[in-house]
Amino acid sequence: MAGSPGSSGLVLVLNSGSSSVKYALVDPDSGERPLSGQAENIGAAGGSYHDALTRILGHLDDKGHVDLAGAGHRVVHGGERFSDSILVDDEVLDAIRSFSRLAPLHNPANLAGIEAVAQARPGLPQVAVFDTAFHQTMPPAAYRYAVPGEWYTRHAVRRYGFHGTSYRFVSERAATLLGHPPAGHPSAGHPSAGHPPAGHPSAALRLVVAHLGNGCSAAAISGGRSVDTTMGLTPMEGLVMGTRSGDVDPGLLGYLAEQTGRGAADLTDVLDTRSGLLGLSGTSNDMRTISEAAERGDERAGLALDVFVHRLAKAVAGLTASLGGLDALVFTAGIGENSVLVRSRVLARLGFLGLAEDPAANAAHGQTSGGRISLPGPVQALVVPTDEELMIARDTARLVSAER
Ligand code: ADP
Q1: Hey, how many other C-beta atoms are within 10 angstroms of the C-beta on 155?
Q2: CB of 235 closer than 6 angstroms to any ligand 1 atom
Q3: Strand order of the sheet with strand 225-229?
Q4: 246 C-alpha to ligand 1 centroid (Å)
Q5: CB 165 within 8 A of CB 219
Q6: How far is the CA of 237 from the centre of ligand 1 (A)?
Q7: Helix axis angle, 388-403 relative to 164-178, nearest 10°?
Q8: Helices (runs of H) and strands (runs of E) counted in the chain
Q9: Residues 232, 215 contacting (CB under 8 angstroms)
Q10: Measuring from atom 13 of ligand 1, which residue has the nearest CA?
């Protein structure tokens, strides 16, 4: 029934970052959010996670009796240990702590959020939902770097990939919109001998999803499983982002260290926080500002947009090779859901794959065409809004009710 919590109770979804905690009370059945907000100035910026969580739980109490099924936390790095979300216990906490070396800005904050809830509401079931988990299905050919083997065995140097919760949500939704279940239609009648022809609704669905927010990545998803993605050991690899460079020649670090006398940590920080759209344009990390400036003729903004589109188109084609073909390209997150210009320019570059923009549908962000923004053809393009909070709430409800 609309407006009333479903049978599973409500889930408190928390994204504890290095300086803020985003929170939402989510009905995992209807997706409704009776409460949401953000607590600022936490961690390095001053306040404690415990005080923030006490305040957030206080807002909940102000709403009267809330039937809380559990708390679901976004956790950035799950290493090779976690390929699914999991109920938090001491062993899981230790594992998350051990992956802090791989995500020094994020995992400690995520842990602090879990520990603060455990203190404020002892006994409330908590679930960790990892950004990396969805990509654990990648084959070694996709996740290993061509570096000495000991770097992998001793230092866990490999590609992990991120944005997994978003990919899971968006790829399921895209399969529904396309009427093509991830693993293919068992009943769609294909020749009984051999595999169904690729692209046929009875075959596994092959998607490239481009998650374009402040952080940008793209993933190749076959039959509902990630087979490749653009981010790697850290969320700096791959596409051009708001402030991150994405791929650069690894030789650049040694060269610049010599030229400038700056250390690796210092230069890495520039690649992380002062590169990407911001570095190229010299003015902004925000795609709206960049697009407006480019349209007014600002050359540096124009270049930032050109590099962004070039790298994205190239990545989509590369991921298509990882899939052995493409059924649909899906755009999501802030830029993917809102930028008619970026989508149009990327599709124009990918005509050779069989993609063709439907300009009217694209201008309406696919909202009047079931997500579709392409003309009829062998490959579809879709816009699918992501909802990581809802995915976290659903995972939490699923794991909590399985435990009961
Ligand atoms: P986050 O990764 O922090 O969740 P979002 O998914 O909200 O970020 O994406 C932020 C990006 O989306 C910014 O670059 C912003 O400029 C871009 N964006 C939002 N709305 C639009 C729009 N209408 N046109 C172009 N870009 C947009």
Answers
A1: 13
A2: no
A3: 225-229, 216-222, 206-212, 328-332, 380-383
A4: 17
A5: no
A6: 19
A7: 100
A8: 15, 11
A9: no
A10: 286
Tokens describing residue 311: 């790298």
Q: Are strands 10-16 and 21-26 parallel, antiparallel or unpaired?
A: antiparallel
Whether 240 lines ligand 1, by a CB cut-off of 6 Å, is no
pLDDT 10s digits, 329-350: 999 999 999 999 999 999 999 9
Whether ligand 1 lies within 6 angstroms of the CB of 97 is answered as no
277 alpha-carbon distance from chain centroid: 19
325, 310 Cβ separation under 8 angstroms: no
- Cβ neighbour number for residue 102 with a 10 Å cutoff: 19
Burial class (CB in 10 A: 0-12, 13-18, 19+), 241: buried
The pLDDT value given to residue 191: 52
Residue whose CA lies nearest to ligand 1 atom number 19: 334
Low-confidence ranges of the chain (pLDDT < 50): 1-6
Distance of CA 46 from the midpoint of ligand 1 (Å)? 28
Beta partners for 330? 209, 382
Bridge-based pairing state of the strands 206-212 and 328-332: parallel
Active-site annotation, residues:
131
Buried/exposed 351-371: b ≥16 CB within 10 Å, e otherwise: eebebbbbeebbeebbeebeb
Say if pTM beats, i.e. exceeds, 0.85.
yes
Query: Within 10 A of 95 (CB to CB), how many other CB atoms are there?
Result: 16
Residues composing the chain: 404
Q: Is 294 in the pocket of ligand 1 (CB under 6 A)?
A: no
Site to probe by mutation for ligand 1, drawn from 162, 239, 288 as the one with most ligand atoms within 8 Å of Cβ, is 288
Instruction: Give the position, in ligand 1's atom list, of the atom nearest the Cα of 215.
Output: 2
The answer to whether residues 135 and 229 touch, using CB atoms and an 8 Å cutoff, is yes
50 class by beta-carbon count within 10 Å (0-12 exposed, 13-18 middle, 19+ buried): middle
Beta-bridge mates of residue 14: 23, 73
CA 315/CA 210 separation, integer angstroms: 9
- CA–CA distance, 226 with 220 (Å, rounded to integer): 6
Residue 334 Cα, ligand 1 centroid: separation in angstroms? 3
**Residue 199's pLDDT is what?**
79
